[in-house]
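Repro:
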Amino acid sequence: MNPPAKRLRVAMALGAIYLIWGTTYLAVVIMLRTIPPFAGSAMRYTFGGTLLLLWLLLFRRQAFAGLPWRRLLVAGVLLVAGGNGFAVWAQQGVPSGIAALLISSVPVFVMLLNWLFFARRAPEPRALIGILIGMCGVAVIVTHLHTPAGAVRMPYVLALLGAMLCWSSGTLVSRGTIAATQVSAATCVQMLVGATLLSSIALLHGDWRALFAAQVTLGSWLALAYLTVFGSIVALSCFLWLLTQVSAQKATTYALVNPLVALLLGSFLLGEKITANVALAVLLILVGVSLVLFQGKPRT
């Protein structure tokens, strides 16, 4: 691929995850109006993974050869079932903008987990400062349990923090495991693994018994379709492809854009007011994440 074409594709992929993942929080709110959380997540990834599987079996069956199956299975559990499934469940009690703002601190969690359990190498001083600032922003949100949208119950906040830990761990597990030609196959495997676990959780949680197709609104079906096609197939594939083309720091800049998109949409369309505490948390988390993402060259 020549440099101008690569730059264009990278810019398009970044633009896709900036916009799509920023709007998925609103789509989840609409889906949850008439579809239970784990059932909705299970259907999302079952439909998306099956569509990808059919396409790959018809046109690119060789893409499955040489996949790091064990790591993809673990990543599917962590990223799809843990990271996304519990984040969706948490949005029943956490406003969409707040959820996006908390999740934007994932790069801080990745840095911490990589330091403590994976690379076991201390970050540079600038990144450490960013971690501290970002965690202060998270603390402001976690301790601010009442918003104009209503009381934020602690179980939902804890579920969201657990989802962030799962997504961060899954990112580290899956990092550097696939080539660009394997992105679609890896995305398919991770979605189907996550969908299987989410279906089981939905059964235990009672979501399937609470789901009545005749009572699901058109808006919820459309939101589910948007999450399936754009939030899962398109955006996740773009993100995994970006990890094979640019640095992880550049690929994860979505963490700076998504909460701003979600906060604005939540404010304009859902009436989620942006309070002084939320504004302070925005400032702290975005400054902290910026310091973590935009570092100099790593030490050798």
